[in-house]
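Hey team,

Filing this mostly as a record. A colleague (T.K.) asked me to run one chain through the structure pipeline before their review meeting, and I want the input and output archived in the tracker in case anyone asks later how it was produced. No errors, nothing strange. Just documentation.

Input sequence:
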Amino acid sequence: MSTGSPAQAPTGGPGGRAPRAGLRPMHPRDRREPHRAASPLELFFDLVFVVAVSSAAVELHHDLGAGHVTHGLVAYATVFFAVWWAWMNFTWFASAFDTDDWLYRVLTLVQMAGVLVVAAGVHDAFAAGDLTVVTAGYVVMRLALVLQWLRASRADASLRATTHRYAVGIAVVQVAWLARLALPGQGGTLTFVVLALAELAVPVWAERARPTPWHPHHVAERYGLFALILLGESLLASANALIDALRESEHLGELLVFAGCALVLAAGLWWVYFAGQHHQRLGSRRAGLVYGYVHYVVFAAAGAFSAGIEVLLDHETGHGGLGAVASAATVTVPVALFLLATWGLVLRHDLDRTGDVLVVLFGLLAGAAAFAPQPLVVAAVAVTAAVVTVERAAAARSAATGPARA
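Output structure:
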């Protein structure tokens, strides 16, 4: 079974020289490399992000439960951007240049340390709007990646303009992030948005020189694994909240219905997400950028879903600070966003017009379920209907094309 370790062909330097100090030249990976899979280091890297995502979801739960909806959502969107963007940049870099030698591993571990620093600063970001620790951890992650880009620039002259653009662009924006901390109130929301847009602009600018050779199947698998982590976090949050509620509540039947609906929602989102052929949506530079950027909505919604489950359960057990509709919306809106964003990225390419309309309608129904007497039940039915629609379309395609050849 492949572990996704880099191919061993380009181990020597120019002229076939042995690698120095155990380091392999960071030549670009083969975009057509067969059986490319996530490496153990990438899986380890993802696990660290669970800490940061979990911390953000916990703080979002507290803010929403206390009725601080706007503050909580803004803080969550801010912190989640740092987590998502650092993860995404490493993922695409690794797909193109992973050497898995000792220096590559060390710099990856430095990025992982930065993630833990970000997680340590999440509480201050929510409680006091203080992004000092989050910014410090974020800059650590990004500067470690700058060193990776500089290393890649030495190995392949054809991609030197691209790798230099990445290194320079990322480094300049990190200086701006640090300078922002000296502004009154740490610069406010406007400066954050401006710098976030600058971060998003770096890959657009860099890839215009010459696209990096990321692997479509590998990238799609990496995104799928991160989606699994986020949905798994939702299941864990649901289980922990229900265990606590069962200790204090006598309404066992209602809690069992709640638990069942939460499981159906998580399973339905998983089913819909993996119903499409994600790698087929990664056929060009522009398509790759769209796929990567829109996933912010998918991932942020999955993370917020776990917080929403806890908020709604607080309301159901009489401990919440939000009204019935608002509490339900903390679950149904993330579900709708996840479903609609997944449709926009992947599913709409595989469905006919009727299927497109149905999935969109079911997504909107899931979001509007907050106004229903049994919001979680209605949302679960809507997501289940979306799953049925997607599966019927897949069965129709299979029937039209005939059995797959071995």
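Quick notes for T.K.: The chain has two domains: 38-209, 216-399. Residues 38-209 form one domain.
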